[in-house]
Amino acid sequence: MSxxxxxxxxxxxxxxxxxKLITDPFNDNNPITVQVLGICSALAITVKLEPAIVMSISxxxxxxxxxxxxxxxxxxxxxxxxxxxxxxxVAALVIIVxxxxxxxxxxxxxxxxxxxxxIITNCIIMGRFEAFALANTPWKSFMDGIGNxxxxxxxxxxxxxxxxxxxxxxxxxxQVIPDSWYIANGGFYANNxxxxxxxxxxxxxxxxxxxxxxKNTKLIEENN
Amino acid sequence: xxxxSNGYTYGFATILVVLVAVILASLAMGLKPFQQANVTxxxxxxxxxxxxxxxxxxxxxxxxxxxxxxxxVIQNGKVVSEDGAAAFNIDMAKAIKVVSTEREVPLYVAExxxxxxxxxxxxxxGLWGPVWGFISLESDGKTVYGATFGHKGxxxxxxxxxxxxxxxxxxxxxxxxxxxxTIYVVKKGKGMAPNSDVDGxxxxxxxxxxxxxxxxxxxxxxxPYLETI
Lengths: 224, 229
What we know:
The structure holds two protein chains of two kinds. Chain A is mostly helical. Chain A contains ten helices and two strands. Helices cover 60% and strands 2% of the residues of chain A. In chain A, helix 4 (49-72) packs antiparallel against helix 9 and helix 5 (82-104) crosses helix 8. The N and C termini of chain B lie far apart (79 Å). Chain B is globular.
């Protein structure tokens, strides 16, 4: 109780409004399932769980930091070249991520290979720069960036979970479906090779969107 | 100050680009030694793995000299250099562009449990980028003892599966084909020479074909040498 009675300043670091920046993208305004952004990478790197997790962390870094940088210089950016400026910032941050991964977590960087570079093309990042960071203070932009990255990452990890489990019978590289179940060993089970192909990611995302809308009726559009 | 004037726009763009360039360039320079060390260690690790030694990357550095007894540069059947560093530093990406009879290629000789093994580096093209690997032959220069593969950006779950044990373990015990001096990577069940072929990756046909071509092309440069032993 004592913590709640503390008087908050007009706009605390974790005020309700700021908290909403983090929690909103998680559900009501999820970048993948509601805004339908960043689908391309959701298709590409969700075959296995581990790259999906590292990808989520990388996007979190790029989006959080990028939002802060853009927000810090938002009043200096000439309007006509703002998209180019945003691109330069994303590209620079992505290269930093790539180089650091290569130097210190070499194995992970090998797993992600080209997909780290493809963070640049992730529409969520440009979308948040343009829609949020250009108009808000650095702290809010940071929260917004992290929130959206988490919203993105959660979907990525859910999709990767199902694709790896059903497609390869493993999770994080560990076999979870017992070997004796497989037809090759006299069992009844076969991995669904279809799950390894990108279109299945789309179908899994579709199912997630369906489930989410069934639960969260706010998201259902009015039928005119 | 008018941030939308032409002059400001040019100035801003210039400063931003120069600033970003400086940051990235210095970061790349600073991290280069770490990255280079990783690559060298990984190469040593891969060489050791091809003779069935399961070492992690940090052990590879110390284990490498214990098992690798010779590193030679081979050209058209002759040893042209016995300098270990010269052999180790040969860039296979450049080497494979030369016709196999004039190609200078490294050969690693390893000793393990009293046996002698020849380790041959491989390099070729996959679907999205380069693929590479090491293949080790027993002392007869003909029987495959082990193989490892790596790739730059093959499709995860499909072509990228060439690095898995399921694929590489097939090579052990196979014998190089007499006529073509290679191990064929074929579609599952389509092999013609059961003693010299392995199953490719289903769904990763182009990568599998790339590995097939790579093995044939790279081994050919060693054919004159290995046939003399």
